[in-house]
Amino acid sequence: MEAAEHKAPNYIAIWGMLAILTVVEVAIVYFRLPRRLTVVSLVFLALWKALLVALYFMHLRFEPKRLLYIVLAPLPLALILVVAVMHGFRGP
Amino acid sequence: MTAHAAAPSVGHAAPAQGGVGVYTQKVGMWVFLVSEVMFFTALIGSYIILRWGTGAQWPDPRTVLAIPITALNTFILICSSVSMVKAYAAATRDDQAGLKKWLLLTVLGGATFVSVQAYEYHHLIEKGFLPSSGVFGSAFYTMTGFHGFHVTCGVISMIWVTVRAFRGRYAGGNYRGVETIGLYWHFVDLVWIILFTIVYLI
Amino acid sequence: MTAHAEAVAHAAHDDRSFIRKYVFSTDHKTIGIQFLFLSLFFLLVGGLLAMGIRWQLGFPGQAMPLGGWLPQSVAPGGVVAPKTYNSLVTMHGTFMIFFAVMPLLVGVFANYLIPLKIGAPDMAFPRLNMWSFWLMIPSGGLMLASLFVLGGSSAAGWTVYAPLSATPDYSGVHLGQQLWCLSIVIFGLSSLLGSVNYITTVVNLRAPGMTWFRLPLSVWALFITAVLAILAVPILAGAVIMLLFDQTIGTHFFQPDVGGQPLMWQHLFWFFGHPEVYILILPAMGIASDIIANGARKPIFGYSSMVYAMIAIAFLGFVVWGHHMFQSGMNPTLASTFMVSTIVIAVPSAIKVFNWLGTLWRGNIHFTTPMLNALAFVSMFIIGGLSGIFMASTPVDMYIHGTYFIVAHIHYVLFGGSLFAVFAGIYFWYPKMFGRQMSERWGKVHFALTFVFYNLTFFPMHILGIGGEMRRIYDPTVYDFLRPLQPINVFITINAFLLGLSQLVFAANFIGSLFKGEKAERNPWRDTGLEWTTASPPPHGNFAETPHVYHGPYEYSVPGMDDDFLPVTTPPTGRAA
Amino acid sequence: MHWWFPSNASSVGGQVDSLFYVILYITGAVFVLVEAGLLVFLVRYRRRDGRRATYVEGSTRAEIIWTTIPAVILVSLALFSQPLWSRIKSADTYPPNADHLAVEAKQFEWRVTYPGPDGKLGTDDDFMQKDELHLVVNHDYVIDLTSRDVVHDFFIPAFRIKQDAVPGMLIKVWVRPTVVGTYELACAELCGLGHYRMRAQVVVQTDSDYAAWLRSQGQATSSAPAASPTAQEGTP
């Protein structure tokens, strides 16, 4: 029932991937792309990196589904909070 | 229930009815991490909200913060995450030498990260960028400060785990302690990935 | 079953030292009882503060009885000063919510009941559990200390709205507010450790046969409450830390002049605050469900819909926080969204009320003291729930927001709801906790006095609110339109004092029964639950051998059986376990 | 003895009150039915020796009924409330020809800025009056509500109007008084130790009375800042 049952992922490859993504992020900032494009691509890259860490380093990919539900529970709430408050301020 | 009952640091182990099929410390750590997600939501969310509300007056982080050195620091933290996961892999194989080596590297990585952050703070404060320097200063120091606090706690517990490893407490495939602390460690790394992007880059 | 053999060995000869057994104990039962004494003490503190509030409102500007004993800066000539009044209001709310009702419901009953009711020898992390209690000492201590520091305690209301709370110049409170923040952060840590424990214990330590849908509703409620706490309390901790930094290191999170957002405090606070309301009522619902089924000698009506209703309340509880902020200057379109979600959350609450009525229907109702309190919970929760509908409607809320109508509503939910359930729970599980029965006769006297004076105190507050009386007003007679309402205030004050005095009956019964109470048997209420299959009080390790569960939690009056209850451990063949 | 709503004096107050009564009648009926049901059950099914409770675990049909009925009633209440709410609080639905006033809340007073004879805010002839709000009856006003220090709440019970004043925000409040008279403006959000005495007078006047008052103010402001006659605080 424990983690030992699955084949260990190639941690060094994921490490390389994370390093490359970080370099790309910093490069985007210094390229001074249009603001919106910068924000969208940076958020995308950050989520990609976060997902790599969660799925492989924290081996969520190999855990039972029910644990995954526990882990995912706070994310919609966090999103609701931030989005609602951002729109809570009165328009000009 | 022989191997499973041998879990350390729990008073009693009872036969689980179903559950999520995961041992107790791991469930506990994940539940704790869920609450940590909400804690950082309060901090990161406030940053996003304040920045959204302030609009164009927000300073460009590139002009205030030193991005290259922080990018390097990010890399160091990612490295320590890899060494952590290597330590866990060594523990599952009962490779005691590997476990000790990778744990030491992890402690080193975490300590380096905190030191670089302390240096960065020192540098910024000398430049006159303080927690009272506008909303950006407030949010920057609170967010990175609390992340640094988490890393520091992580380093301290990692030292404790390393000492235990040298005493042979994780021998014989008893990797649970290493895995549980590793989850915390990776979580702190994950938060930094988000923080670095939001505070330094965007 | 090595672990259980160990537990049994423990039970047989308990060789823990005095300190390990009674002070720094990791036994969930001891910790639950420690929480009970601590939170009853804070209930007393909060109640005394309330008496101060009521005196000033009933007899504004007159010297308080014994008020001459207070320092001149607090009560010149025995008369409550305006700032003291604001402190009283703030600290009454703070103590009652964070240090009395929440630990009474969660600290006491979650700790004491969860392992016993699911058949576990202890919590998943007994040592963390001990820390969860011992962190309450510095937390409560700091909060108490803040009453005595220079500048007084926090005076910005229990909701500590920024920037009044964030800027000492505005409130005149310096150290008091900082201690408040520090105390709440430590409280958050304590609550977090407790909740991690409760969740993990319920998930992983259920006895064989104790499936999710055989869990008693009290355990379901406490589990869902712990989930709410895990998700909501960290937001409060984060917000309070920002507030603390605003006061101490000069940050500007809630200071509008440099780009901070005062409304952000309200959003963060109520994102915690509304789930907190359900943290305070869900365990009460669970406790009342257990006791009502026991008192009516009937299975709970619609067990699974009760569970789903609680899950729905928990989820919806996170998307209704804006209804505390309808008049706050929030975008009115967003307010409409919150109105709809608020209206929707009333439905599961209604389902629960009807299910309790359905449980009583065609029952054989035993009017024991716990049952009377549980019934009072239901009938008072109906009033509290219905008065909430007025606030959900945004235009009506525009008038009653911030008036005594709100005060009446919150007390119908938190006192009429939660506290009656707490009393029910204490009367019900006292024999299990201490091995002695509380006096039924004095219990009924206490119940009758509390029920009557409680209603005479809080029901007229609805009328005050409709008359437009604002809450947190030091002297309502300043306003012409409030002066005619003053007789109601006098009436409320007198009844509030009588309500306070009635609690002496409870105190005497509680303390007296510790020494003089009739020795309790294993199962004095003829209940089906697992906790009643072990000794009263249960030994260290709880059960002599791992219990096995064969039935749902509420098998009362099963046809064809001699007894009118079927313990969950009785094997289906009828043979004794 | 007046132990109910203060009499209404604004255009929206009547509708707010009606909505309140609708909810009161519905919840009142539910209250009576449910509590009566509870009492009947308690008496009818009280403990009697030799009788057993009936073993019933639930009824899906009953539960569907008592889920649906409250849901329908509650959702229709929300639909009922919505139009009134957006008319009162959404700035884009306010009457376009309304007069503008500015009210700034500060600890512990209300500072009302009138546009002066030219009818425009932000010009030289604006004048400020402490703790006194003069309005012409049957006239639309949009009040620019701000706060200088902490969160206050602009509450005129007779108008059934309540709106927080938040530092750093400008919130527009629409009022249309309909009855001549003197009313009270209260602060309904704890704002510090003088919160309880943060009270102002609302004077609703006829057109001619208002004009006369405006003229007297013009004279007063030309020499010295207006000293409000009601500025002195304290218990009456």
Description:
The complex is a heterotetramer of chains A (92), B (202), C (577) and D (236). Chain A is mainly alpha-helical and 92 residues long. In chain A, 73% of the residues lie in helices and 0% in strands. Chain A has one domain (3-88). Chain A has helices spanning 11-31, 35-57, 65-72, 74-88. In chain A, helix 1 (11-31) runs antiparallel to helix 2 (35-57). Chain C has 577 residues and is mainly alpha-helical. Chain C has 16 helices and no strands. Chain C has helices at 2-12, 18-23, 28-58, 82-118, 126-145, 168-171, 175-204, 217-248, 262-296, 303-316, 332-360, 369-392, 394-400, 404-434, 440-466, 486-516. The longest helix of chain C is centred in the N-terminal third of the chain and has 37 residues, at 82-118. Chains C and D meet through helix 4, helix 9, helix 10, helix 11 and helix 12 of C and helix 1, helix 2, strand 7 and strand 9 of D.
Produce a short descriptive summary.
The complex is a heterotetramer of chains A (about 90), B (about 200), C (about 575) and D (about 240). Chain A is mainly alpha-helical and about 90 residues long.
What topology emerges from the helices and strands here?
The complex is a heterotetramer of chains A (92), B (202), C (577) and D (236).
Chain A: H1 11-31, H2 35-57, H3 65-72, H4 74-88
Helix pairs in contact in A: 1-2
Chain C: H1 2-12, H2 18-23, H3 28-58, H4 82-118, H5 126-145, H6 168-171, H7 175-204, H8 217-248, H9 262-296, H10 303-316, H11 332-360, H12 369-392, H13 394-400, H14 404-434, H15 440-466, H16 486-516
Helix pairs in contact in C: 3-4, 3-5, 3-16, 4-5, 4-7, 4-8, 4-9, 4-14, 5-7, 7-8, 8-9, 8-10, 9-11, 9-12, 9-14, 10-11, 11-12, 12-14, 12-15, 14-15, 15-16
Chain D: H1 13-44, H2 60-89, E1 99-106, E2 109-114, E3 127-130, E4 132-136, E5 141-147, E6 152-156, E7 161-165, E8 171-175, E9 181-187, E10 199-205, H3 207-223
Parallel strand pairs in D: 1-5, 4-10
Antiparallel strand pairs in D: 1-2, 2-3, 5-8, 6-7, 6-9, 9-10
Helix pairs in contact in D: 1-2
